[in-house]
């Protein structure tokens, strides 16, 4: 028989904490460890200030901040047993009160800093609690709220509880939405200074390992485990009102995770998402996106942008497969020399722009370009964001200096290289060879992996390395990808489009192929072009997610009533009708374009793509003129799609 589970109702929570007090300080808790690590970074100065901890428990935070020499240190908790433990720990460092957070035993306007750690889950009246905090706090005071992340808690079915006397006791909790918390405090004169949504990372790993829960840890490194909200009370007489935002997206459902969504206007300020603003927030421009699902801009983990205009080059389907990438590269420069020379007549800047447009049209807003970073790629006008902080080498076969480049890559940046790109024994030895060289660790991002073996999969996972698959490219060259069971065994996995030289189309073509033939899990496929890809490439600005403070990289697709992951798994380029990069409209369908405010439309030009009109923020006239001069054609094929400049619209 398993451990008996006892569910405690909201009314029994106080009794539950009395029992929890006996073991609270002894039972390791990765959530509180993460909270202490993250919240410590944003603590205000405490010396000489009056500090209150609401729901202080056994005095965890009071004991931690006592060293900062506050003028006074006060704790309030509803559990007498918890307070008994706190008194034994703190002595005369703090004044402790047995009380309720809705009627705090503290004088009005007497506090400078308030901690509220893992308490809001038990508060029934959020607005009432915000008003009570406002009563006791001085103007300019700081409130620090932290708790389990409501979205992850619901998605993962997390329960708050503990083990005692051979039973598992689980406490009833509430999951307040972050925007609801912010709005409740804003109504009482507070402004949100910070909203942190951290995931578990290396410092918490040992706690999971000690509990024999490493698999759970790996599944949680890309999702927010807690939130930490820092609010400041406005000066007396000052009315807090949201600033006019640059843009507001109204009427759509937006993705919270691969499986969940919310119906809320998205406000964009300073190129970032502000989820703490209300639906009615003032905005200089607003776009009606009712009837659409908003998704995070996709992340293309592998491309060679300068080849966007090229056709597929290689053997026909009935010819023998290539043994490795070296054989393919050597052959095409002979068999297709004329075609290659013709495309090289197109200026490099122009070719790079077509590579960016190929990504933009399918909703990829961030791209890892596996070649030198040409200045054109880093211009603010370039249609997508190109990853710039990483080390790279082409491959062991083509680069004698790979190890040197690896050693010169920062420990905080990824190192990208092709590996296992073939079906011969030499390709199969690429990953073991990288390991023997000392070039396989948490930074290493391997591209292709067609020649994966059980041994190399074990090495990749053991060393914390990552793999990017480009399915249609591999099948074109080698008539195969790595076996499904091998790819499915890789812990850190992403998808790239590769270039039109070998791929069938764009990133969405790769996503659909991976879902139908390799991965079969829409949730994992979704993460492979959003959060997991962002994690692998060490992206730091919230790319791959719609969350507060993240870069406003957003795409809009027609509402099908499906989950975000199911939507992405079947998505085609023609269904992507709006693309925002850092809050700026980069692409719009004809339908969306009609809804755009005039100021937003400025600088956009019409392009026909396989019969669909798309308005792009791109110098299309110059690009077509430059390309036509070299290729002597007005209609272009970019990533397998026919494109024509529509000058009459």
Structure, described:
- The protein is α/β, with parallel strands linked by helices and 649 residues long.
- The chain has two domains: 5-241, Vaccinia Virus protein VP39 (Rossmann fold, 3-Layer(aba) Sandwich), CATH 3.40.50.150; 298-573, TIM Barrel (Alpha-Beta Barrel), CATH 3.20.20.140.
- Helix content is 31%, strand content 24%.
- Strands 13-12-17-26-27-28-30-29-32-31 form a ten-stranded mixed β-sheet. Strands 4-3-2-5-6-10-9 form a seven-stranded mixed β-sheet, sandwiched between helices. The protein has a five-stranded parallel β-sheet with strand order 21-22-23-24-25.
- Strand 21 (391-395), helix 13 and strand 22 (415-419) form a beta-alpha-beta unit.
- Residues 239-243 have low confidence and may be disordered.
Please specify the SSE layout and strand pairing.
Elements: E1 5-8, H1 13-20, H2 30-39, E2 50-54, H3 60-65, E3 72-77, H4 80-90, E4 95-98, E5 111-117, H5 126-136, E6 137-148, H6 150-156, E7 160-164, E8 167-171, H7 178-186, E9 190-196, H8 202-210, H9 214-220, E10 226-233, E11 247-250, E12 253-255, E13 261-263, E14 266-269, E15 272-274, E16 286-288, E17 292-296, E18 298-303, H10 325-335, H11 337-343, H12 348-361, E19 364-369, E20 385-386, E21 391-395, H13 402-407, E22 415-419, H14 425-428, H15 430-437, E23 444-448, H16 454-463, E24 466-469, H17 471-478, H18 484-488, E25 493-495, H19 507-519, H20 522-528, H21 531-536, E26 554-558, H22 564-569, E27 576-581, E28 584-589, H23 590-593, H24 598-601, E29 605-609, E30 612-616, H25 620-631, E31 636-638, E32 641-645
